[in-house]
Amino acid sequence: MTLGADPGSPAPLDVSEIAERYRTLSAAVGEVVVGQEEAVRLAFLTLLCSGHSLIEGVPGLAKTLLVQTLSRALDVRFGRVQFTPDLMPSDIIGTSILDAGAGDMRFRRGPLFTDLLLADEINRASAKTQAALLEAMQERAATVDGTRHELGPHFAVFATQNPVEHEGTYPLPEAELDRFLFKIVMDYPSEGEERGLLARHHAGLPGEAGLAPVLGGDDLARVREVVRRVIVGDEIVAYVSSLVRATRDDVHFALGASPRAGLMLLRAAKANAAVEGRDYVLPEDVQEMFLAALRHRVVLDPAAEVEGLTADEALSRTLRSVTVPR
């Protein structure tokens, strides 16, 4: 089904065309980022939802390469900030400087003003510096000296963190975690994938620098409009509500999912349906997005942690406990 657009706008996209473009993009990115299909999918869905994602994985799993490659495939700008304990908010946002020629202050933009921003090892910076991203993530704008500076329509934050190294880190507060659409967990590639990676490197095949754009910024805006129009039935709305509320009643969680979590889960399910070539959401779309959309929004009860339960395991139990609509 073709979803309409305003008169005079570019031709509307069909959801089947979105599915085809995603397959093309996934294949192109997969030539550079080997063995991370789920991470590639969730990163692309993040952009379709105009969201932000937290990427967790040990060093060397291509977290930075994933975001760089995605920016090239979408022909949008890429920026990177290495978060360290001495990083200040002005190092990210920018600062006002004296323009001697004009005799007044001029705002010099920081690396925040890009499209895809990689906040590398975000948990190494202090809470004050982490907070510098909150306005940008929520409103796509930054306020400096009382003046509001708009960010571009494609602005998205991809923040990384190491799950095993905690010395010299600052835990991300729940209010900040709740602003990430997904927590993307990257794991080691399979044996076959790792052999393929080594073979490609040995052969000297081109990396992300040789990747031709698959989608442009205008295409991304049109795809987002299609995602916004994906049909959601009343039974799906009730299902999402039941899942989110179930986390609040589950004894394994000290803190359940917020109402924002339900909104993000529903938005992610719509995007997932679109890349599958459907203009309507199925319960399976909600189920596929459930862990990635909620694993960072819940807090395990101490007793559950002592038992060795993980957030994903507890959420999987919650998912099985809620009746699936038919």
How would you characterize this protein structure?
The protein is an alpha/beta fold. The chain folds into two domains: 1-228, Rossmann fold, CATH 3.40.50; 230-326, Helicase, Ruva Protein, domain 3 (Orthogonal Bundle). It has 14 helices and eleven strands. It has helices spanning 15-30, 37-48, 63-74, 89-93, 127-131, 134-139, 174-177, 191-203, 217-228, 234-249, 259-275, 283-294, 302-306, 311-321, and strands at residues 53-56, 78-82, 94-99, 104-109, 116-120, 141-144, 147-150, 156-161, 182-185, 253-255, 299-300. The longest helix is centred in the C-terminal third of the chain and has 17 residues, at 259-275. It is globular and about 70 Å long. Mean pLDDT is 88; it is low at 1-9.
Provide a concise account of the structure shown.
This protein is of the alpha/beta class.
Main beta sheet: strand number and arrangement?
A: 5 strands, parallel
> Which CATH architecture of the largest domain?
3-Layer(aba) Sandwich
State the shape: globular
- Strand percentage lies at 15-25%
End-to-end Cα distance, whole Å, is: 23 Å
H/E element sequence:
HHEHEHEEEHHEEEHEHHHEHHEHH
Please state how the strands of the largest beta sheet are arranged side by side. Answer: 2-5-8-1-9
Pick out the low-confidence regions: 1-9
CATH hierarchy, class of the largest domain: Alpha Beta
- Going by helix content, strand content and strand pairing, the class is alpha/beta
Summarize model confidence as the mean pLDDT: 88
The number of E-state strands comes to 11
Going by CATH, the homologous superfamily of the largest domain would be P-loop containing nucleotide triphosphate hydrolases
Question: How many H/I helices?
Answer: 14
The domain tally reads: 2
